[in-house]
């Protein structure tokens, strides 16, 4: 018998189906050991797959069947081949493909929304939606799908005129999914913008921005206007007529395009209130006030006037409930249209037409017979005027009402400019005032006397405009000046000459303007001339080197005196003073200089006397004073010799010392200028000497003051190798009362004298003096030494 050996095939793989779609699904299997081939047979065979058998590499683990029919059951057999001779058992399974995808379409397409609908898939568990670009109204991120149970969705928050791609597929209860259904749709444009051109009381005008490809604009108005609410049209203009006053209207517009429509846009506006009702007031020749009740919420008003004003103004913006029209033409009929406008001009009321006429023009006012306090006024008659009112500024009392055509006014102020207005009064109007400015004549001139002197009077009076002149007269007329008076002058000052001192004169003056035909009242005034000037003198006993006293007699009516002084030798001194005294001290003068002094008195009432003049010469410079010799004595006092210069042979000199000390205890008066010896002064102390001279004519010099400091100790002359004793003038302190002496060392070198002096201890000096003795015949070559013990004793040629 024969024996055969064989190996059975391994267990078939585990097979599963996933990703079942309308036209495909995926088969997955587990690994089969040592398998070399995987064979899959599909019945019915998929399109383009031949007999429906697919042989796959053993390394594959899944295979997707494609190009399948929708809602079709496919019989799938899978087996593994091992070395082409061993085959595993076949695994068989049946799989139903998903139905066809839903049909998707868009409806209600607007600018920012659209309705997406699709057909229902039986046994669908839910639907999956994807929109690109993703609108913000869909939750989740752009990578996430949106699941929903219904077969429709309203997409909102879309962008206008934007193309959107919408993808929908169904997920069945079995877990399979249909293929995606895709539809693309562009949103409608933005809705038209509504622009309110005009909102009036009974009408409104609106326009819309045009939308391309619009078939019709759907327009509704709420509440209805004249019973109509649908104002749909193809044009972009809308005129609403017969609107009601002060009503809020809402206009809604949608642009209807082919297959879509824009979002709706609405505009709400309020019609204007009823028009104003105006009336005239304060009618004048060129102006009138128009009043009306204020319109609620009106921001401003406009008035259009026909014909325009004289300056060409025809349209006037107004911010109150009245207007004061001016610059109108007299006696003219006007039409004025008034409208009220809201803030931002959202509405304008209907026109209100106001008719009025202006008053006639007032005739000119003329004046005549103008004086300082009166004038005559006259004017012409004006048609339609029943009465005339005259007003004065400044006021002269109540206004004057006249039916005549002239008026005499006699209670006015002199030299005052009056503004005179005349106004015509009619039945319902007053004319514009005709105004005239007119000066009254000045008051009578007022004479002042700015300077009243002994033989002349300075006159001045108030000035007037250039076309005035003055006539001045005097009584009695000064002798020799008869041709001067009466005086006709255009000046406002004049000096009357040739008058007598302390005499009364009477003056008259008046002003005349031939151009103005005015003559002022006559002014009369009296004035007395001043007395003669005061006698003046400069007494010699008050004259000094740099000062002098001027004296004069008192004048009873004087309030002060003016003193003038000047040098006749130079221009450096020219001064003046005002004083109430009858004397004055002139200072800062120069010695032996001649001066001229003049005095006049200022009297009560602007009077001034003549000037009195005198001259004088100042005293010479004061004598000089010098201490010519001072010596310290053994008793530690100082003796001095002093001298002074002389001025003339007959001068008297006055000398004082401060403080009084020693032999000088009182003033020294002398006519001599010989040396004056003073003893008993203290060491090292300053003394002040004062000296002046009295001249034979009574004048005195100024006091010359000299300070002298006494030596503080005994002294010696000190020098080194001088040839002349006059060159040895330096002084050195030397305690002569304490064992010291003043030494002189006198020698000859090469025939030249060499002199040395100073302070030396007394013993040493005596030793040298004794050691240097020589006979008279050898004096030219020997050395001489002198010692002395008094203050400055080593002077001249002395040796002891």
UniProtKB/TrEMBL annotation:
<dbReference type="InterPro" id="IPR050991">
    <property type="entry name" value="ECM_Regulatory_Proteins"/>
</dbReference>
<feature type="domain" description="Fibronectin type-III">
    <location>
        <begin position="534"/>
        <end position="621"/>
    </location>
</feature>
<protein>
    <recommendedName>
        <fullName>Fibronectin type-III domain-containing protein</fullName>
    </recommendedName>
</protein>
<dbReference type="InterPro" id="IPR013783">
    <property type="entry name" value="Ig-like_fold"/>
</dbReference>
<feature type="domain" description="Fibronectin type-III">
    <location>
        <begin position="442"/>
        <end position="532"/>
    </location>
</feature>
<dbReference type="InterPro" id="IPR045860">
    <property type="entry name" value="Snake_toxin-like_sf"/>
</dbReference>
<feature type="domain" description="Fibronectin type-III">
    <location>
        <begin position="272"/>
        <end position="361"/>
    </location>
</feature>
<keyword id="KW-0677">Repeat</keyword>
<feature type="domain" description="Fibronectin type-III">
    <location>
        <begin position="98"/>
        <end position="190"/>
    </location>
</feature>
<dbReference type="InterPro" id="IPR036116">
    <property type="entry name" value="FN3_sf"/>
</dbReference>
<dbReference type="InterPro" id="IPR003961">
    <property type="entry name" value="FN3_dom"/>
</dbReference>
